[in-house]
């Protein structure tokens, strides 16, 4: 099901530097992201509300190979999504903090949870998804792109569209 922007069609904003390092709540599991995000957004779906124990979860999509665990032991679990895909979550085996995930529809992309970064203020969020699940007291920035359900990030992946569409990268 294609999603239409409900309120704004602003152009994508980009964080241009690599996301850097992050960790779980107890500090036992650390990771490094060696690439800037394709897109950074806030998700208002019920699963992200439950995951964050809050009104939303703020995320950044990066190349899967750019994410490296640098300390500790990660555990994973997989769950179905509302759109029929599977979502694999990486979390700390000591404190259970979730750090990042991967959707089966896009195995070459990891979604990093911005709140686990050592410097989350360096990330520029530009969109909000799953607004049909947004809690009524949450106010959104007018300039951010807004989607009732999942979003089409084609413009954000313009430099690597094959990764987003999950097609093989053309050989030079």
What structural keywords apply?
172 residues; mainly beta; Metal Binding Protein, Guanine Nucleotide Exchange Factor, Chain A; single chain; 32% strand; 11 strands
Walk me through what this model shows:
Helix content is 7%, strand content 32%. The protein has 2 helices and 11 strands; from the N terminus they run βββαββββββββα. The protein has helices spanning 46-52, 161-165; strands at residues 20-23, 30-33, 39-43, 57-63, 67-71, 74-80, 86-92, 98-103, 109-113, 127-129, 145-146. The strands form 2 sheets. It has an 8-stranded mixed beta sheet. A hairpin with a 5-residue loop joins strand 8 (98-103) and strand 9. The protein is globular, with a radius of gyration of 15 Å.
């Amino acid at each position: 099901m294609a999603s239409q922007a409900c309120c704004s069609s602003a152009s994508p904003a980009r964080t241009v530097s690599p996301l850097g390092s992050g960790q779980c709540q107890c500090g036992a599991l650390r990771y490094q992201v060696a690439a800037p995000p394709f897109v950074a957004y806030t998700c208002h779906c019920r699963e992200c509300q439950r995951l964050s124990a809050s009104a939303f979860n703020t995320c950044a999509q990066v190349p899967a190979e750019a994410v490296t665990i640098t300390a500790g032991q990660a555990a994973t679990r997989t769950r179905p999504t509302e759109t029929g895909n599977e979502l694999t979550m990486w979390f700390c085996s000591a404190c259970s903090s979730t750090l990042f995930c991967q959707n089966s529809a896009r195995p070459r992309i990891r979604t990093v949870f911005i709140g686990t970064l050592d410097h989350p203020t360096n990330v520029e969020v530009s969109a909000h998804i799953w607004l049909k699940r947004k809690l009524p007291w949450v106010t959104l920035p007018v300039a951010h792109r807004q989607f009732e359900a999942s979003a089409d990030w084609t413009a954000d992946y313009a430099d690597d569209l094959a990764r987003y569409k999950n097609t093989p990268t053309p050989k030079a």
